Amino acid sequence: MSVLTKSDSVVVSGQTPLFGTVTTQGSKNSALPLLASLPLFDEVEIANCPDLTDIHVMVDTLKYLGATGSFSDGVVKLNLRNIMNRPISEEFTNKLRASSLFLGSLLARFGEARVGMPGGCVIGSRPLDIHLNGFKSLGAEVDKGAGNITVTSNGLEGQFTLPLPSVGATQNLIYASVFSPSEVKLHNIAIEPEIFELVDFLNAAGANITFENPKTLTIRGVKRLNPIQFNVQPDRIEAFTLLVAGVATKGSVKVTHCRPEHLTAPLQALEAMGAKVEVGDDWIEASYIGPLKGIQVETGFYPAFPTDCQQQISILMALAETPSILSEKVFNSRFRHLDELRNMGAEIKINDNSAVIQRSENERGMIGCKVDSYDLRGAASMIIAGMVSEGVTTVQSLRYLYRGYEEFIEKLNRLGAEISYR
Ligand code: UD1
Could you report the per-residue pLDDT of 282-291, keeping only the tens digit for each? Predict the structure, then answer.
């Protein structure tokens, strides 16, 4: 069943341990910026794209621009020779913040780009100031008016230091510079694995992007990019979510086709909590081997603990024998799932973006009830919470889940969960 037709809520039976092996999907956060770069190309084929609503929105946006082709069986195959420079209206940007990345790629191809103010998950204010200041510092004109942003330039040049290493701003500024008549240098860039994947992708098609040091890159403009076939890397966040599900349910889950080196901080946290973690070249297995211990986790830019794993680890914290402290340093409103966990019985005190989390004082632990999801990782975390609670949990608003997880319910059920669509 495609994510486009799945039900918006599920019923989760509690206390079902998960055991077994599961394959990691292609990375959402790699696939989206690759797709946003496609206006730089005439022809591409990208495989291992996960079947997610966000990926469908990106492909629909490219088709709206005039691309022809298909997205099926995980392969996006598009011809972009005749795309036009149309404004990316709020109809697209309200659905998906990543559509603001079209600013850079359309600017590079057409010298002008117009994009509606972006939407996305409700995880706090997500400004575009670094993207826009970057364009301006490199010589572009930026005009904000009537819900739109317009950027124009005859070719960027110069240097820009990102005030903080925003993933999206790094990507947008890379696209915008690919055809630049002279050199662009970006300092203090984001170094998430998805940035390296984008650089590899563009360079494989003929771009000239080099790392001066891990936090600085130089883009020397080229005339065109060649047609390319590319495989999206595995989704580190999905892999971690499945590992947490195994440990939380007192089971053991092995995820294959993943890159353990992308999950160093989250795996250290799992081990610190008392889980057994084993790692091979392209697999990770995490097992529950005894009561979990509370730990302190602070999210940050890569290679620190990712904000996209914060909600999942909070479930383990709500099961641990000793209290944990969880601090969210990247986004300012990513704790809404904690209210739901509290309704299930966990003891949680929130002070701004820091929370003390401990298990329920009730001997029965967390108790299933009706809970809502407010964002992508929160939705996955509420399903895990349902699997560890007594009784039955109904998790609602799964439209968020389908933005980032391809076959989450099916994968969990194959590992031993009892989850049914409503
Ligand atoms: C990407 C990921 C998202 C992840 C996030 C942080 C995709 C599609 N999304 O989002 O899953 O949670 O990285 O790892 O890859 N900021 C500004 N001004 C800006 C841009 C960002 O202040 O112009 C701030 C944001 O408010 C946030 C921080 O920088 O506090 C990080 O944001 P950023 O790295 O840009 O995240 P995204 O690229 O939107």
Answer: 999 999 999 9
For the chain, the structural domain boundaries read 10-25+234-421, 28-231
190 CA to middle of ligand 1, Å?
A: 10
The residues annotated with a catalytic role in the active site are 121
**Ligand 1 pocket test target in 52, 161, 166, 312 with most atoms within 8 Å of CB:** 166
Q: How far is the CA of 164 from the centre of ligand 1 (A)?
A: 10
Q: How far apart are CA 18 and CA 252, in angstroms?
A: 6
**H-helix or E-strand containing 218?**
strand 216-220
Six-digit token string for 225:
């990019």
- Tokens representing 251? 């089971």
Residue 324 near residue 294, CB atoms below 8 Å: yes
273 SS3 class: coil
Which residues have CB under 8 Å from 123's CB, separation 6+?
331, 333, 334, 375
Mark the ranges of the chain whose per-residue pLDDT is less than 50: 120-123
Per-residue pLDDT at 364: 85
Amino acid in the structure at residue 225: L
- Which residue bears the tokens 């309200």? 94
Tens digits of residue pLDDT in 329-377: 999 878 999 999 999 999 999 999 999 999 988 888 999 999 999 999 9
CA of 54, closest atom in ligand 1: 8
How many angstroms separate the Cα of 177 from the Cα of each of 11, 40, 154, 164? 48, 11, 11, 19
CATH number for the region 28-231 comes to 3.65.10.10
10-25+234-421 and 28-231: identical CATH topology? yes
How many angstroms separate the CA atoms of 283 and 256, rounded?
Answer: 4
Whose Cα sits closest to atom 31 in ligand 1? Answer: 166
Domain range 10-25+234-421, CATH architecture: Alpha-beta prism (3.65)
Q: Is the CB of 162 under 6 A from ligand 1?
A: no
Task: Give just the sign of the alpha carbon dihedral 31, 37, 38, 41.
Answer: negative
* Helix, strand, coil content of the chain in percent (nearest 5): 35, 25, 40
Q: Quick check: CB of 180 below 6 Å from ligand 1? A: no
Predicted model pTM: 0.97
Ligand 1 contact via 78 beta carbon (within 6 Å): no
Query: Cα separation of 309 and 236, whole Å?
Result: 9
C-alpha to C-alpha distance for 42 and 39, rounded to whole angstroms: 8
**Residue type present at position 143:** D
Task: State yes or no: cis peptide before 303, omega within 30 of 0.
Answer: yes
